[in-house]
Specification:
Layout lengths: L1 E7 L18 H11 L11 E5 L2 H13 L7 E4 L7 H9 L7 E6 L3 H9 L12 E6 L10 E7 L6
Parallel strand pairs: 1-4, 2-3, 2-4
Antiparallel strand pairs: 1-5, 5-6
Helix pairs in contact: 1-2, 3-4
């Protein structure tokens, strides 16, 4: 079995004149990331690898989640290729994961995340919201052959408000 957790970065700040890749989280984004990451312990495997987009908002979200999951920040692997909005590219990156790892937690962007979940999951989701958490399981031992997955849990900030 392969376990994949996709987390969309927290809400970002559009009020500052940064390049898209450099946009930070806004206050709501930070609070929502803390809220969701503080309530997922029962849905996270015991061991996993952490990957994040290099975009500031995704990296900051990954650091908040790592902190609340008691995972060393140094364990986050930042990948330029994850700064994508395209689900085909996201699929390619996920399928490149080493089979040594049973579980991957990935921090990225929409539309790639929502479209990936809808392509590979068994539940259609209109939109994975910012700081949204989607846990999926695939009945294969090879990342390259992931296909039809089962959505195990969806958690959004609204679940706690």
């Amino acid at each position: 079995m392969k376990n994949l957790i996709l987390i969309r970065h927290g809400k970002s700040n559009w009020d500052v004149p940064f390049k898209d890749i450099d946009r930070p989280l806004d206050k709501k984004g930070m609070l929502d990331a803390h809220l969701v990451s503080s309530n997922i312990f029962n849905y996270v495997p015991k061991t996993y690898i952490l990957w994040s987009s290099v975009a500031k908002r995704a990296a900051d979200t990954a650091m908040i989640f790592a902190q609340n999951l008691l995972a060393p920040i140094e364990s986050i692997i930042f990948k330029k290729e994850l700064y994508t909005f395209d689900e085909r590219q996201l699929e390619e990156i996920i399928k490149s994961c080493d089979n040594l790892y049973e579980s991957l937690i990935l921090f990225g962007h929409n539309d790639a995340i929502t479209n990936f979940v809808n392509k590979f999951g068994d539940i259609n989701i209109d939109n994975v919201p910012t700081s949204g958490f989607v846990s999926m399981q695939f009945g294969t031992d090879n990342w390259k052959t992931i296909n039809e997955g089962k959505i195990k849990k969806i958690i959004t900030p609204k679940d706690f408000k």
